[in-house]
User: Fold Ribosomal protein S11 from Trichostrongylus colubriformis.
Amino acid sequence: MGINALHIKLRATGGTKTKTPGPGAQAALRALARSGMKIGRIEDVTPIPSDQTRRKGGRRGRRL
Assistant:
């Protein structure tokens, strides 16, 4: 008995920051699959703003 299948929800920072999950999310997913877990559904639950606030960095962006 026990857990043998999973539905997975991925979440990135979202909002005004990055909307893609980092490399750790992909590595964790791969590790679960390799350990013999059946993966049913992968859902992205990253928060997406309906009216964007201003991003930090100013008008000309971050200058290096």
Summary: DSSP finds one helix and two strands in the chain. Residues 5-44 form one domain. Strands lie at 5-10, 38-44.
